[in-house]
Specification:
With 261 residues, the protein is α+β, with helices and mostly antiparallel strands. Helix content is 18%, strand content 38%. The radius of gyration is 17 Å and the shape is globular. It holds the Pfam family 4HBT. Keywords: Hydrolase.
Length: 261
């Protein structure tokens, strides 16, 4: 199933093949995607695919009047992932399944494959909430226009060597009217990757893992931005911390990022 272009997952080109029972399968095109801060091939958008397919596996188990919001996301990739998925048009397939029984929260695990190669795994933990108030998807003609490149898809712009400004765009919001968790996690990966590769003249360090904590709702516009600081960068590995600040200047997400040569 394709999704409308005026939705976050539709803008990223996600297609959902199965979302019944408690399993979910979806794919996303990744050919040509680059980090707008570095120009390097990027696997950042897999955070979006993970949040969708893993979150859906949790969402399918919701009860009456329940909705789900992501609270943790963890992405693990082989270092070659970005090069593999951006050099042809095969895209990435993700399969997610639940772990153990549903409680106040739920956990789903995911496997990513490109052609016949498994390139990584991930997990999403979701909270179940009640009484959610939903917004309508935007319906102006501009909101049904396909965007090319991560910066345009996410409505972000460089705001420093390892920072992105998150502009307001209703298409990147979820049904609760705040920035979609997958969009936010993608932004954290982009700035963290830029932080560990800043000033690097030899072979770039490539994404190994991204671990995200969702602290509060992220509202775009105003002071909303993603930024990262390298904690240690060596010849073969690097570690960075990233954060997302909302329109009001409050911390909304944090992440720990590890990269490898």
């Amino acid at each position: 199933m394709s999704h409308p272009l005026n939705t976050p997952i539709g803008r990223f080109g996600v297609e959902t093949f199965e979302g019944t029972g408690d399993h979910s399968i979806a794919s996303m095109p990744t050919h040509g995607l680059v980090n707008p801060l570095t120009g390097l091939p990027s696997a950042a958008a897999l955070a979006m695919l993970l949040d969708h397919v893993g979150g859906l596996a949790n969402h399918l188990r919701r009860g009456d009047d329940e909705w789900t919001v992501s609270t943790e996301l963890s992405l693990e990739l082989i270092p070659e992932a970005a090069d593999l998925i951006t050099t042809d048009d095969a895209g990435v397939l993700a399969r997610a399944r639940p772990v153990a029984a549903k409680g106040a929260t739920a956990l789903a695990v995911c496997e990513f494959s490109h052609r016949d190669t498994v390139i990584g795994t991930g997990s999403v933990r979701s909270f179940y909430i009640t009484g959610a108030q939903f917004t309508e998807w935007p319906e102006n003609e501009e909101h049904h226009t396909r965007k090319a490149g991560l910066a345009a898809m996410m409505a972000v712009a460089p705001d420093g060597a390892a920072a992105l400004r998150q502009d307001a765009d209703p298409v990147i919001n979820n049904m609760l009217g705040v920035v979609h968790g997958g969009v936010a996690a993608t932004g954290l990966e982009l700035v963290a990757s830029a932080a560990v590769n800043e000033g690097r003249t030899d072979a770039p360090l490539r994404t190994g893992s991204l671990r995200v904590n969702f602290l509060r709702r992220l509202v775009a516009g105003g002071e909303c931005r993603y930024s990262a600081t390298a904690l240690r960068v060596g010849r073969s590995t690097g570690v960075a911390d990233a954060q997302a600040v909302g329109a009001d200047g409050q911390l909304a997400l944090t992440a720990r990022f590890t990269a490898y040569r």
